[in-house]
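Pasting as-is:
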Amino acid sequence: QKSSITSRVSTIVFDVTSTSINSAPMSSSGSVRLRYEKCLEVWGNATQPFHQTEEPASVELDSLIYEREGERLFDNLSVRISPGNCVALRGANGSGKSTLIGLIYGSQPALAPEILINGIQLSSLDISTRCRIFSFLPQDVMVFSDTLRNNIALGRPVTDEIIETLCERLGMLNFLHQWPQQLDTLIKEGGRNISGGERQRIGLLRTLVVRTPILLLDEPEQNLDLQALQCLVTYLKEIKDSCTCLLVTHSEVFNEVIDQTVEIRRGNRLLL
């Protein structure tokens, strides 16, 4: 039914060229709705349940430059993330972590030169293609006036069995079974009838219910207890070889799944 609408950690330290960075919002309600509608368009003619796409993809930033409101936030930022690696973006609040992950997601354009996904320019990919490449958990999870099922599936032809299996693997069966109508439960616009923790769980299920080549998680630990976090880490370890993961986090609980850490710092130069 479609809706209407582990590893040893190596550290690379980068400095940001701004002394006052306020992270831009990752996505507005309008842009989320647009991607939702594009997902419906992409998967509208699909007849088979969808669970996994292609192999993990590489992500490359080569001398990245980004400005906002006339202020240069990143100057010649270079990093390459190999397919199947899990990279953590760390740094103080306001240092630009969410801005960087937003640039990789394509929600805001870089000035120069390009962000490459498997060597292909990100700017050349339309929204429909990005739906197949990226799964993204933003800090502020948007939910819609629709069923729990449709808020999770987001237009993709995933079955109830796939959702329930994912809930089990993430230790979220109690979350699903707390409502008498379960996946048919109506969520109010903006999540007015659910808590912050429930909204975060919807966001995680939405992000992980399909396995795309690139997984972007912006502070997935928000509003989750330790048990839920441990289940999430276990799951990320299980799928580690099937996707490339970029993770913005302040939590040390993810260290066992992280291959590399990129530390974003406020300053006047880029330190490699």
